[in-house]
Here is the input.
Amino acid sequence: MNYKEKIGQKENPLTLKTPPLTSEYSMHVDEKEGKEILVCTVGKTILHYDIRCLSDLHAMLNKRGDWMELGSKDEKQDTKEDTVEHWGRSSDNPVGGWYGLKKNFRGRFGMYIPPLMEALGLAEVTHDKRGNKMKAK
Here is the structure.
């Protein structure tokens, strides 16, 4: 899939809402050190994620075949096992660790990647106040 076209670039980012639908943020594709990355802008905070996370997370959720809790946490907080956030930084995932690329801003994978996957038609995401989940489409 050509993510640049669907997600946009710096000049025309995709605007999304967090799973509880309480905050807006934007996502676009950029290049860093010759590799495509996802750039997530939340207010003045900028996070970077390996773009590969989209296909890897989709494949894992397809294999799982059921809902998975998001479990979003900041980088320095411990994650709950069997959550999207935990998987996004686990040594057992396809990249063997963090999909977040920016030191001290590598967390919140479970907050910002699921709505993007929903917008791309790759996943379903619940939109409750707390305890949101996702599954592959």
Notes: The beta strands are 14-17, 24-32, 35-42, 45-50, 68-69, 123-125, 133-136.
